[in-house]
Design a protein that fits this description.
By secondary structure, the protein is mainly beta. The chain has no helices and eleven strands. The radius of gyration is 13 Å and the shape is globular.
């Protein structure tokens, strides 16, 4: 059974940092591109970042230069390092394993002004 579990969310002041983690179980992690998405209250879910199986990365313009996506295939884990956080980054953050069409349940990130 495929499972994605996010962790690392929390409350942080503007300008602070958080690192999110997402662990995949039940499938071969190294075969799948991984995405991070986020959904703020009252808004649609939006794409944040992607890392490919080869390690290539891409980012939404709103987070470019502040967020870094990475992966550790040995740990079946993808990370999202978030620096210089802004109140508008407040959202539930979800990871997505593209090949398996799987989503985690999300982790809340709240950035106070």
């Amino acid at each position: 059974q495929v499972q994605l579990v996010e962790s690392g969310g929390g409350l942080v002041q503007a300008g602070g940092s958080l690192r999110l983690s997402c662990v995949l179980s039940g499938r071969i992690f190294s075969l799948t591109n991984m995405n991070w998405y986020r959904q703020a209250p009252g808004k649609q879910r939006e794409w944040v970042a992607t890392i490919t199986v080869g390690g290539g990365t891409s980012y939404a313009d709103s987070v470019k230069g502040r967020f870094t996506i990475s992966r550790d295939n040995a740990k079946n884990t993808t990370y999202l390092q978030m620096n210089s956080l802004k109140p508008e980054d407040t959202a539930v953050y979800y990871c997505n394993a593209v090949l398996y069409g799987s989503w985690g349940r999300g982790t809340q990130v709240t950035v106070s002004a």
